[in-house]
Amino acid sequence: MANKPAQLVERPPVVVVMGHVDHGKSTLLDFIRKSNVVASEHGGITQHVAAYEVVHPIRDPSGSNGAGRTKHITFIDTPGHAAFSAIRARGANVADIAILVVAADDGVKAQTLEALAQIREAGIPFVVAINKIDKPNANVERTQGSIMEQGVYLEKLGGDVPWTAISAKTGAGVDELLDVILLVAEIHEYKADAKAPAEGFVIETHRDQKRGLAATLVIGNGTLVGGMAVLAGRAIAPVRIMEDHLGKTLKEATFSTPISLVGFDELPGVGETFRAYKNKREAEAAREQMAPAAASAAPTAAGEGQYSMPVIVRADTTGSLEAILQETSRIGDEHGRVTVVQSGIGTISEGDVKTALAGESHAVVIGFNVRIDPVAEARARERGVRIEIFNIIYKLTENLDELLKESAPKRKVEETVGTAKIMKVFSSRKDEHVIGGAVAEGYLAKNGMLRIIRRKVLIGVAKIKNIQTNKQNVDRAEAPAEFGAQIETETTFEPAQGDTIECFATTTV
Fold first, then answer.
1. Alpha-carbon distance 118 to 290, whole Å?
2. Cα separation of 162 and 188, whole Å?
3. What is d(CA 119, CA 117) in angstroms, rounded to the nearest whole number?
4. Per residue in 374-420, pLDDT tens?
5. Is residue 337 classed exposed, middle or buried when 0-12, 13-18 and 19+ CB atoms within 10 A define those classes?
6. How far apart are CA 396 and CA 37, in angstroms?
7. What is the pTM (predicted TM-score) of this model?
8. Is there a cis peptide before residue 480, judged by omega within 30 degrees of 0?
9. Are strands 50-59 and 65-77 parallel, antiparallel or unpaired?
10. Residue 61, CB-side half-sphere exposure with 13 Å CA sphere
C-alpha cells in the first residue's frame, strides 16, 4: 500500500563507510561511537559487517550547538579486505549515503576504486573523507589529485562532491564530517512512515550458540514491535528477542535503526529484504504465497584429470562464509583445486567430522571464528581428520593453498632444454645408434633424454650414453656446437639425417 504524504516524517540517514583496507574506516567509526572495536579486530582489519547508531548535535551556522538539538545517523561498517567485495556492494545498496575514506599518506588504491564503482552503481550520494592527516607523510593536496583523477570532482576545487580532511585517530575534522553527512541527508529529504509495518534489509546473520539463529537488520521504513513476526527471504522470526547494537533489549524499533533479532527458523540470506507482519501466522501465510526456494548450487566438481582436495567450511556469520567460499574458489590451477563439499554457520560438530570421513579421502575441516565441539574434536583426533581454525581470512586461504600443494599427487613435468638437427647417422644397431649433428638451441647433455621428431611427428625416445665435441668426451654440447653422440633407443626405430632432436629434463612437482 502506498504511503500517504501526511504519514511521512524525516528519518535518520543510513551511511556506509567504504574504502581501501587499512585506510581507517573502522578507526573512524571507533572514534565516532567512542568505543574500541578496532583493537579487537583480528589482523587489524574488519571482517564483518556491523551497523551502529550514533547521535550528533545539530550546529547552527555560527558553529554552536543548535539549542541542544540532536540527530541520529546509522553507520554500516564494511570490510576493506579484497575477499569481502560482495559484502561491500550490499552495504552500498542498503545505504542512503556513502563515506569514501582515502588515506592522506596513501592515496587512491585498489579497493578505493572498487568502492567508488559500487557507490556509483548504487546511485547514492557520497562524501570523501581524506583520513590520516595526522601522519608525518600525509599530503592532502596529492590525495585530492589522485581522487580527482578518478572523475571525483571535489567541492571548492571545481566540483560538487563534499569532502573533509580528518584524523580518525585524533578526531580532527570528524564533527565537520558528520555535519556534512546531515547536510547531504537534509538535501535529499529521507522520509519514512512510522505507522507502517517495518521493512528493510538483512545486514548480517549468525548462529548464536545459546539462543539460535540471529540476524542484524536495518529498518528502512515502519516500526517493529514485540509480538510481531519478521519474514526475511523465506526465514521467519517472531519478535521476542530484539536488541540494539549495544545489546540492549528493545520492545520497539523504527526506521534507520540497526537491530539484532534472534529466533529465525532458518538463516536468512545476507542482503535479503525483510517485512514485519502482525503475528507469526500472517508471516507464514505470506511465505506460502512465495515461489519455492531455488535449489542450492552443487559444489563445483574438479575437471577430468584434476586433483580435488575436499574441504568442509564452518564460519561464524553468513557474510564471512560467503567471502571464504569466494576465496577458496580461486585456489588451485589446472592440475588441482579446493572443493568445498559442505559449508555452514556455527560450531564444528561431530556431523562435520563424519562427513569428512565419508569420502575416498578425508576432507579438511576449516573453521573461521568458530569453536570445535569437544566430541567432534575427540573423534577427529581418533580418526585422523585435520581441523584448522582461523580468525584472519587471508591466513585461511594461504593455509589451504599450502595444503593443496602438499596433498596433490606429484606430477612429472618435462621441460625442453635444447634442440638439434641430425646431420649424419654413422651406425645403427637394434637399439644403439651413433649420430652426428649440430645444436640449434640450448644444449644436449650426457644421460639426457631425447625425443626424435621427423616431419613434426614423434618417432621415438632415446637416451644419450655418450657425447663428444671436437672429438673430446663432454658432459654437454651447447649451441652452436657440432657434436657426435651415442644414443640408446627405448623402442626399435632408426634415426635418419634431417631428424630433429629435442633434449628434455623431467622434474617432479
1. 30
2. 14
3. 5
4. 999 999 999 889 999 988 887 888 888 888 888 877 777 888 999 99
5. buried
6. 22
7. 0.61
8. yes
9. antiparallel
10. 0
